[in-house]
Specification:
Layout: E1 6-10, H1 17-28, E2 31-34, H2 35-46, H3 55-64, E3 67-72, E4 75-80, E5 83-84, H4 92-101, H5 105-116, E6 124-128, H6 131-135, E7 141-146, H7 149-162, H8 169-185, E8 198-201, H9 207-222
Parallel strand pairs: 1-6, 1-7, 2-6, 7-8
Antiparallel strand pairs: 3-4, 4-5
């Protein structure tokens, strides 16, 4: 059986993973996996006040989700049971709940096979927090993007303001620090760079500069 080429791009929120993954996937003509959206999709499916202690119910809900990613222009369309929920899953409240359900081992296990199934010819670009460590540990190329919490908060603040959404920079910074702490210290697949990952600090880099660096690495590993 021919091995499917896989590129993993891991890192915390706000480092540009989604944008870079979309650009690289479009350039290569590969499939894309936005693994972070899986937990947001689960949070959306679970409703406003889910019982986080009922792990078996959450795991069943995770297994039953019907998900499709559709590349459209400069955006990635995310569909749940045939409905476009790309915007609905991007609220701050959904993101906070997603981080909480992502810390549940039974939920992560339920979604593991679903994520692995995205590796199909001609190749896969996988975006997440544990793609290179847990989901695709044998990936040929693993990249870990990072940036300071302050810079990531500024980027998120600008995104929200550009959309006409009111935001508080200090609050966003505090929330990112809290989320980083929760993601990096959880027992199930904590956020960390794989031992063989190439780390790129994007704090002082533009998206174009990061994209150029990633494509250089892609050409070195997959050509």
């Amino acid at each position: 059986m021919t091995k499917i080429p896989v590129l993993t791009l891991d890192g915390p929120s706000g480092v540009g993973k989604g944008t870079i993954c979309l650009l690289v996937a479009k350039k290569l003509g590969w499939h894309i996996l936005d693994s972070g959206s899986l937990y947001r999709l689960l949070a959306l499916s679970a409703g406003d006040e889910p019982d986080l202690d009922n792990v078996s119910q959450l795991a069943d809900l995770a297994r039953d989700m019907q998900i499709e990613y559709v590349t459209s222009g400069d955006a990635l369309g995310i569909y749940l049971r045939g409905k476009n929920v790309s915007q609905a899953i991007r609220t701050e409240a959904t993101g906070v709940l997603a981080s909480k359900v992502a810390a549940i081992p039974e939920v992560r296990q339920a979604l593991l096979d679903k994520q692995k199934a995205f590796a199909r010819a001609p190749g896969l670009v996988a975006d997440g927090r544990d793609m290179g460590t847990t989901v695709f540990p044998d990936a040929e190329l693993k990249i870990f993007l990072t940036a300071s919490a302050e810079e990531r908060a500024k980027r998120r603040y600008k995104q929200l303001k550009d959309k006409g959404i009111d935001a508080n920079l200090s609050q966003l910074t505090a929330e990112l620090h809290e989320r980083d702490e929760r993601d990096s210290t959880r027992s199930a697949s904590p956020l960390l760079a794989a031992d063989d990952a190439i780390v790129i600090d994007t704090t002082n880099l533009s998206i174009e500069q990061v994209y150029v660096r990633v494509m250089q690495l892609v050409e070195q590993h997959f050509s």
